[in-house]
């Protein structure tokens, strides 16, 4: 798929989903570090 074929809306959705994914992963890592007893199970 060429970049020119992608619409701005598709690019925007991809960027938002990527940012959400990064935020979720960061939150999980922070929780795992702050509360290691949760991650034991």
What's this entry about, in short?
The protein is built from two helices and no strands. The chain is mostly helical. The longest helix is centred in the middle third of the chain and has 27 residues.
Account of the protein in words:
The chain is built from two helices and no strands. It is rod-shaped and about 50 Å long. The longest helix is centred in the middle third of the chain and has 27 residues. It has 41 residues and is mostly helical.
Beta percentage is under 5%
Radius of gyration over all CA atoms, rounded: 16 Å
Number of helices: 2
Mean pLDDT: 85
Question: How would you classify the quaternary structure?
Answer: single chain
Distance between the termini: 42 Å
Element order, helices and strands?
A: HH
Unreliable segments of 5+ consecutive residues: none
Helix content: over 70%
The total domain count is: 1
Q: What would you call the structural class?
A: mainly alpha
- Overall strand count: 0
Shape: rod-shaped
The biggest beta sheet is recorded as:
none
